[in-house]
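Please check the following for our workbook:

***
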Amino acid sequence: MQTSPASFSRELWQANLPLYEKTLALPFNQELAAGTLGRERFRRYIIQDAHYLLVYGRALAAAAAKADHADGVVQFAEAARTAVVVERSLHDGFMRDYGIPAQDFAATPLSPACHHYTQFLLATAWSAPYPVVLACLLPCYRSTRKWASRSMRAPGTRILTRHGYRRIRARNFSMPCRPSAIRWTAWPMPPTPARAP
C-alpha cells in the first residue's frame, strides 16, 4: 500500500510530537511566549535569529535551484527572498530598538546551536536530493508556525506587547510563502516504499 505525502507527513509529526512538546516546555520558549524573557536575553535571541535567517534564506535558494518543477522554483525563490529581505528588515527594527549597531551584529558570532543547525541546513541543501532538502526545511516552517499560533492563543500571553514581537509574528504568518500556504503535499514526490504488514 502506497503512503500519501500528506499522511506520511502527519505520521512523522505525530512520531516526533513528544520531542516538540519538550521543546515548547524549555524555559527560554516559555519565557519568550509569556513575554517574561529578559531584555538582554531577547537581544541575544534577535541577533542569533537574524544570523539564522540569512543562512535559512541560502538553504531556501538552494532548494529553489534543485526544484524539479517551475512552481517549486518560484515558491522557494520567493521564500528565500522573504527570509533574507523582509524578515531581516523586521529584525533591523529590533536592532535599532535594542541599540544593536550593525557592526556589533556583524561581529557577534553564531552560538554553537545556531552554528551547528545552520551548517546542517546548508550542507543538506547543497548535497542532498530535492526531497531530502524539503524534509530538512519543513520542520522550521511547521514548528515555528505551530509555536506562534499556540503562544498567541495562550491566556496571559504578553510577548506581543513586552518585546513588540507582534510585528514579526503578524508579518510572518500572513505572507504567501509562510507555512500555511506552502503546498508541500501538492508537489510531486518520489514514490514511498510499501510498508511491511
